[in-house]
Amino acid sequence: MIELSRTQDEEVGDGTTSVIVLAGEMLHVAEAFIDKSYHPTIICRAYNKALEDAIAVLDKIAMSIDVNDHKL
Q1: % of the chain exceeding 70 in pLDDT
Q2: What angle do CA 3, 18, 61 make, to 5 degrees?
Q3: What is each CA distance from 66 to 15, 38, 60, in whole angstroms?
Q4: Which tens digit of pLDDT belongs to each residue from 6-18?
Q5: Three-state secondary structure along the chain?
Q6: What's the rounded Cα separation, in Å, for the pair 34 and 19?
Q7: Fewer CB within 10 Å: C terminus or N terminus of the chain?
Q8: % of the chain residues with pLDDT over 90
Q9: CB count, 10 Å around CB of 8?
Q10: Residue-wise pLDDT tens for the chain (72 aa)?
């Protein structure tokens, strides 16, 4: 978690609390599956699939913007 927060701060400079809360919740959810004897590899694959799906949705709804347009 410390490394995750450090990386977030170095790459973006903000959002360290958000990334820790998100990671904590992901671990909490994963723990429930571990308790039901799901193999950690299966859980990781599911998280990776969810990531791929989320990226696909974001790519589909993304809009290009002109960063020089000061009207935004």
Answers
A1: 99
A2: 115
A3: 24, 46, 18
A4: 788 788 888 888 8
A5: CHHHHHHHHHHCCCCHHHHHHHHHHHHHHHHHHHHCCCCHHHHHHHHHHHHHHHHHHHHHHCCCCCCCCCCC
A6: 22
A7: C
A8: 62
A9: 18
A10: 778 777 887 888 888 888 899 999 999 999 999 999 999 999 999 999 999 999 999 999 999 988 888 886
C-beta separation of 44 from 27 below 8 A? no
Closest by Cα among 8, 44, 11, 15 to 27? 44
57 token code pair = 């949705």
The whole-model pTM stands at 0.72
Residue with tokens 């723990």: 31
